Amino acid sequence: MSLSLDHVVIAVRDLERTVADYQALGFTVVPGGEHTHGASRNALIVFADGAYVELIAFRRPNPEFRWWRVLSEAGDGLVDFALLPGDIAADVAAAKARGLELEGPTDGGRLRPDGQRLEWRTARAATSDLPFLCGDVTPRQLRVPEGDVRRHPNGALGIAGIEIAVADAGVSARRYGALLGTAVDPGAPVALGDGQSVRLLGPDRAGAALATRGEGPVSLTLRVAPGSATGDLDPARTQGVRIGRVASDQG
Q1: Cα gap 16→19, rounded to integer Å
Q2: Is the C or the N end of the chain the one with fewer CB within 10 Å?
């Protein structure tokens, strides 16, 4: 099963300040709206490759939700990422048949500032080393804007890869294999669709992140247009998220 990266989630306490910081870094940031349950709202950084970064803030405590717990206990930062399924019901059934424990599909949605209501379905593993699946019910272009919002003054074109802190790389590799339906080498990048990849970092390389935030994403790398600045972005502006930039061979 070839699944592409849908989006990466950064949870923050102050959404307005975060939006201003990312705009100062040269990103085009658009308001996302309020989620159906009313407990959170977001803003989006959408890239030309179709993936995006979700900046999410909570309106009230939500201790049942892992994102809120990580935010409240460890502060702003990466909390999750999602893959885009072809048919979420079929993909979930296939992963379950390979022995992976998944919850869902579960209905979700968001109300955009312009009044457009979006609907999707998600499925989640029992462990946070794995991404969740996010499949659209309404057309994806309503959830993921197209056009000029995908152009960024800093030259960002898309997400090349994500690093994931895991308690045991061998165990997580088997889980990824069950999710994707392919053999996964724990020491090599896990290939996704559209040239994206995930790299598993065990306790020897991600011990501090594991201790403070648990298993889950710890950094991401962006592809930028030729001639754009490369290297890590200022963590004071990214709310502590390590975001690297590498030159793309595509303009």
Answers
A1: 5
A2: C
